[in-house]
Amino acid sequence: MKTQVYYQAKKIGINALIHAFLISVVITCLYPLLWMVASSLKTQDTIFKDISLIPKEFHWENYPRAWQEGGFGRYFLNSIFYTISVVTGIVLVSSLAAYAFSRLSFPGKNFIFYIFIAAMMIPLPGSFVALYVLLNKLHLRNTEVGYILCMINVGLSTSIFLLKTFFDKLPHELEDAARIDGCSKFGIWWHVALPLAKPVLAVVIVFNTLNVWNEYVLALIIFDSRAKMPLQVAINRFWGEFATNYPLLMAGLTITALPIIIVYLLMQKYIVKGVTQGAVVG
Amino acid sequence: MKIKSVLENYLFILPAVTIFLIFYIIPFIWVFQLGFYDWNGIDLSKSFVGVANFKEVLVQDPSWWQSVLNAGYITIIALIFQNILAFLLAVACDREIRLKNFYRLVFFIPPVLSEIVVGMAWKFIINDIDGANIVNRMFISMGLSQWAHNWLSDPKTALTTVALVHCWKGFGWGFLIFLAGLQTIPKELYEAARVDGANAWHSFKHITIPMMVPVIALVGILTILGSMQAFVLIMGLVGGEFAGHTSVPVLRILASMQGSSRFGYACTQGIVFGVILMMVSFIQYRFSKKRA
Q1: Residue A282 has what pLDDT?
Q2: In the A/B pair of chains, how many CB contacts fall below 8 A?
Q3: 10 Å Cβ neighbour count for B179?
């Protein structure tokens, strides 16, 4: 009897310690973000005096001001535009290719596929230098099209790999039935294969969305015009202009972070899946 | 009929191959070509200099090796702190425990944020701007006011601060991968060990660790590749190379390209750095194979 109480107490004690450890890490994770949001609701006068996480007054007007005066509205819409274009492009281009690599036969199939996979493995940190030269030659530098095509290329290999692995495991019956009904190859890809691939397409969409929204270095070297820049580059290059108004800058940072946090909270399941699958790939 | 069918099949991969050829293969080849030239990126003519660029990177450019050392420093701190923390958290969450999903949800928030947001948010928390510095306030309230200073403007602490923020941003990746790895260990092993009289520490040492070696090796390689190439966080946190104190190889490449308009030299640095990355991950791979 005594030992049972002892073990129970020990178990509760250990659990409490574990929770204390986990919660301290949770606080460390959330504090900077709460601080950022709290600061975005203060004024330049109170931001450095009132360091509490709940401001005494909520200055919501910082957000419309950051959106208009700070120009964050423009950058935000640019980021949305790039993200949607690139992710749509990746889904179409990579699912077409992955379907062919999995189902269709043509000379050189394995060779071409392995080159895509090799590209995923070999790090080449200087490639943006050559990309800059190339875009200059093609007159695509400082253009939206140039940036979108580069970013489609960035997401291509991993997306093809994930989709091909999925198609390989998919039973052929439905596609055979569609073929007997006279459906063309493109018809089967669009009407049968893509709808079946929804779970893995979700992983592809979520990961590429995070990737494009957070991208920095290509946007930095490709864009000269301020009007075309996405949020990440604009906020880092022009933050000095807010030196007299940090709450506006913090509102800008919150605007930059918020869409990603929303996507993450909604699509959490797919992110966990993608990390564990992607880890096996990388 | 047969040929028409094969051509139709090629149409499926045509868009992917075209984009890949133009935006991956061609730049890839150009990097290796340009590495042997001296070129400012604008003139029509470039001058062939042979291996002069490589010689300069390897033996005549101390700022380059300083940047490699800095990246190595960040990587070692990440390998130790970030991965031990991630592993402990994963072990703590791999059990019947309340709030498990909440913990997992929160730990992966830093990794999904951009390095710019993380860098700029932390900059305003830890660098002293009119006394808003929370870390300094903590030291002062604990009576350690001599420790309070501008963490990012002090050459002695800037790089370590960068490395710690990098760990804050990155541990969630390792955590998720470790947790997935732990969940693949059959529970029967632990039960069998307990029947045989093993305590928690014994089963951790003789079951968990050996079973996790491949996962640990994988996270190790991912940490090395990620940390060596991290630089956007430094742009957000410090704003640049800080006179070399926080310079890393990718920032050096950017500086050669944009700062001094030496496109050839920037490519050479890229090649050398690519080789360093491949070598380090290969050594790490062999090392973990041997121990397994």
Answers
A1: 41
A2: 242
A3: 25
**Per-residue pLDDT tens digits for B3-12:** 888 999 999 9
Which residues are A147's β-sheet partners?
Answer: none
Show the domain range for B164.
61-291
Within a domain: residue B45? no
**Assigned domain for B9 exists:** no
Residues of chain A found within 8 Å of residue B132, distances taken between Cβ atoms: 47-48, 51
Nearest by CB to A216, from B15, B24, B115: name it.
B115
> B155-183 and B209-228 are packed helices; what angle lies between their axes, rounded to 10 degrees?
140
Q: Please name which of A40, A17, A3 lies closest in space to residue A247, comparing C-alpha atoms.
A: A40
Q: Which of B19, B36, B182, B216 to mutate to test the interface with A (most CBs of A within 10 A)?
A: B19
- Quick check: B271 and A126 in contact, CB under 8 A? yes
What ipTM was estimated for this complex? 0.90
Per the structure, how many domains does chain B have? 1
Rounded Cα gap, residues A77 and B284, in angstroms: 43
What is the H or E stretch that residue B237 is in? helix B232-237
In a domain, B208, yes or no: yes
CATH number assigned to the domain comprising residue B174: 1.10.3720.10
B131 band by pLDDT with thresholds 50, 70 and 90:
low
B121/A256 CB distance under 8 A:
no
Task: Say how far residue A215 (Cα) sits from the centre of its chain.
Answer: 8
Q: Which residue from B24, B110, B120 is facing A253, i.e. has the nearest CB?
A: B120
B203–chain A nearest CA distance, Å: 17
> What are the strands, taking DSSP E only, across B235-279?
none
Q: How many CB atoms lie within 10 A of CB B266?
A: 29
**Does residue B46 lie in a domain region?**
no
State the Cα–Cα distance between residues A251 and B115, nearest whole angstrom.
17
Distance from CA of A68 to the nearest CA of B (A): 20
